[in-house]
Prior knowledge:
Blueprint: H1 2-26, H2 38-48, H3 50-64, H4 66-85, H5 91-121
Amino acid sequence: MARKINGFIYWTPRILSILFVIFIGLFSLDVITPELSIGEIIQGLLIHNVPTFALIIILAIAWKFEIIGGIAFIVAGIAYIIMALQGGIPWYIAISWSLTIAGPAILIGILFLLNWHLKRKT
């Protein structure tokens, strides 16, 4: 039973982070409009996917080094909360946005740290 739980703890943050990266990447598709040329669309996609590329790098590191990835996902979530609160919008709207974006990132980070802790314990 412990082996099944460890397998669950091992795969859950990895699968969730892949889904999270895809979710964040979907936001960049708003640059595709008929008025823009192909070059402008590609440029817009590259710029809008910078957070996605950063999360892919964090995921690649986290896959092998859970502690670094766990901390990085938590820091990314907290950084988003801080940026949302400083964006000049009402705090309650910033918090609701943060729950959607930063919440999963922090959860994934906690799961990576839990996996690291359980692996270190054995």
